[in-house]
Each structure stands twice: as C-alpha cells, then as structure tokens.
Amino acid sequence: xxxxVRPAKVVRGLSxxxxxxMLAVLMGAMVVTLIAQMPGHSRAAHLDPSIPFxxxxxxxxxxxxxxxxxxxxxxxxxxxxxSRLTPWRLEGADSRLALFWALLAVSPAMLLSGLVGGxxxxxxxxxxxxAVAGAGFVLIWGAGIYALAVRR
Length: 152
What we know:
Elements: H1 2-5, H2 7-14, H3 19-47, H4 53-82, E1 88-89, H5 92-105, H6 107-120, H7 124-148, E2 150-151
Antiparallel strand pairs: 1-2
Helix pairs in contact: 2-7, 3-4, 3-5, 3-6, 4-5, 5-7, 6-7
C-alpha cells in the first residue's frame, strides 16, 4: 500500500537490492500478472471453446513468464541509456529496480482488473480498472525513476 502512497520513498529504500532479488521481484510480478489473466481466459474459453482454457493459459504463460521479462530488461536498459541525454543520470540497476518494483506494486490492481474482466465482462468497469492499474504503474515507475536518478 505504501508503494501507491509514497512510491519514491519505498523505491529509495530498496536501492542497493541485489540483482537476484530484483529478478525475484520481476518474476513475482509476472506470476501475479499471469494469475490475473486466468479469469479472462476462462471466460473466453467458455464463450469460444475452439481454443481451450489450457491452450490459452499455455500461450499466456510463455508470453508472461518468458517474453515479458526480456522486454522488461530491454525497457529498463533503454530508459537508463536515454537518461544520458538528460541532466539526470540513471544507472542500469536503478532503472531495473524502478521498473520491476512498479510492476510488482501494481499487481494487486492487475488482479482486480482480471477479476472484473473475467466475472463482470469487458465494459466500463473493466476499462476503469485497467486505467487505474495503468496510471498506477506509470506513476509508481516515474516516482521510482525520479527517486533513483542522480543529477550530474
């Protein structure tokens, strides 16, 4: 909860986290994201049985547990590299920490969004929960970058 209220303070307190711990944070966020997708895939499999639930979840598992971590590392490296064009300097480890922590901190909102999408169906409520999760991610990630960036 504190990550949503004071994200900069939380991320600053986590600075210096080991690479293994950051990988565990990322994979924890990815597992929760995968679980959040289950109700939606279940609903879709029920409405269109041509692709069974197990097949949908297998595809989601490959995407979320194998491809998304690679993309996350790439995005973190890109943000750290782009920081060299600004007066603020962000090291690679700090960039990874800010991104990975934002993904983990927003995971409860992703769970809510997945439940709404699976049980209530796509509509205004689902769009609202997606918007809250997305805005929370951007704000937490931005606050983490701001807290860890060093002015040159």
